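re: ur question from the group chat, yeah i did fold both. here u go
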Amino acid sequence: MNEMPGGQMRNRLGGDSATPSELFPVLSKRKELVSKGLLIPVGIAFLFGIILTATAGDPAIFRNILGVGIGLGCFYVLYRLGGKKKSWWVFAFATVFTMVLMMSPLFNLFFMVFYSMIGTPQGEAFNQLSFGRQVIGRFFSTGMMEELTKIIPVLLIWKWTARWKSPRRETAGVTEPLDGILIGAASALGFVFVETLTQYAPNAVMGVAGSIAKQLPHLPPDLYVLAGDVFGLQSVILRILPELSGHMAYSGYFGYFVGLAAMKPKHMWKLLITGYVSAAGLHAIWDLFCDQPGIGVYLQLPMMLVFYAFLVAAILKARQISPLRAQNFATVVVNSPAPLAFAAAASAAPVQAPVIAPPPVAVPVRAAAPVRVATPAPAVARAPVPQPVAQKAAVVESDCMHLRVAQKTLALRDGANFADSDIPGLRSSTANGVVASVSRNPKDPTMMGLQNLSSTTWKAAMPNGESREIPSGRSVRLVSATRIDFGLVQGEVA
């Protein structure tokens, strides 16, 4: 029998024998394999391994599949960091759209505008320019053109889904910075696939094979191609593997500002321009310094860490300000109403006043036998009982009704205003960000109501079974046990 701290190991029934679920844990954990065991992503990785094994005889197909697998792995890491569930077809659309755009005549038009009209040469001619002229070329030609190309699907999805209703708009559209980051990174993945798999890798294969053929003309031609395939495979690995600090970082950072513009439409143009300039600037810095012969190789690791830090900082900030923070699977939110109710009850309980002993009373004694009367020590006041501190996101008051929504408890006081961070999924119909407000009925001050100040129509289920819609500008009477469907989340008045 195994010994454990605290005594012998026993099963939950108190017996010494192992239960069937302990003998065959796979039978009792079927439902958790997908949610907690990463069964799907690991299964996809196994599938890629099988496909790579089957295509090992064709170097071109092998390196393309390997490049796609590495890119998807990088994106999955970013998706887990973001922590917001979104429809996968949105990511696929962004990736495929950018790939098609790069292979279309429109990309040639971009190239003509950003390179030919500005006068930025390529190849060795660019390296002959002065440092100042290279800065201009990297920023305006390379950075601005490529970042514009990658952000187009993000902007299209934002405007395309702007009029969709909740919760479809939140799962498929761009309503916050996390959406912009993830969709921008998916778009960058398409850019990397086309640039690396159809341009850099094939050029590396042909360039190395031709160079060896000139230097060693007596070797069999198959060896030239084999050497070129090795360099092509290296090109795929070395260009796609660090993309979390490359194209995906630049586009994700730009996408953060696109999502911020969706949340703050009043400052849309300022935020979009800031994101555009920032992404193009980061892109230009990499191309300007890290591609330099000699010193560039020593700058790559510091630059990668800095650019990845930019991306992760944007993700963490986006998670912090997300209206759906309570539903983010990468964020641990400790916000239970039970301790709050305990805190409210503790604060409402009367505090026992400290007990003070009465002053000593003089006792008459005979003169012949004086007696010293000891002064009794005052009773020690009882220390106050520590009370748990309520979470900032939830406010409970015992003298008013409250609304339980999205793991929060909101006090429904007269004049209280609630923002989109209090009720996730709602978008304010005004510039002040308020989506709901509590007020009294002017005709009957004893009646309280919750006014809809969002752009979404609510659905209320009254305690008597009546259902009604609450459009923007209208109010629902606050009665205990009333249930309100806000679109993405539901709340209950208590």
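okk and heres the other one u asked abt
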Amino acid sequence: MKHSAPSIPKPPAPDRAPTEAELREDLAAAYRLIALFGMTDLVFTHLSARIPGEGHRFLINPYGLLFEEIAASSLVEVDAHGEPRQETSWPVNPAGFVIHSAVHTARPDAVCVMHTHTLAGMTVAAQTGGLLPLNQISMEFTTRSLCTNTRVSPQTTT
């Protein structure tokens, strides 16, 4: 018996906008992955996706469902004022709406916004010095500049 290798899906063209159904499926999967990896932080983590087309509309989780319970069909479409644009028996978390509405308004290019409270992130945020530029990964997130005129300047310690 001959087995063929599974085909690898090709990524969509960069200028192709996802459909609402695709966004719902992807966002529901993201909520479930957040739950799987223990990053839910109860009701304080929020994910949203902008719906393409006219108006300021995005998808967000209904308040009251656990992240592992989120399905594409349970996501709530809200407008710029946090009002549901579909029939729903679930409320929308006001904190999630306010944060995500501000980001989606300020960044029209942001299709998906994820606001998490990971243990590592909260630990770094609680340190007096915050994220220190100690390795190449942390250097991606630091605002300190170690380069002057394209030459690397050594950092001095006291």
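fwiw on the second one: The helical segments are 20-36, 94-106, 119-126, 136-139. The two ends are 69 Å apart (CA to CA). idk if thats what u expected
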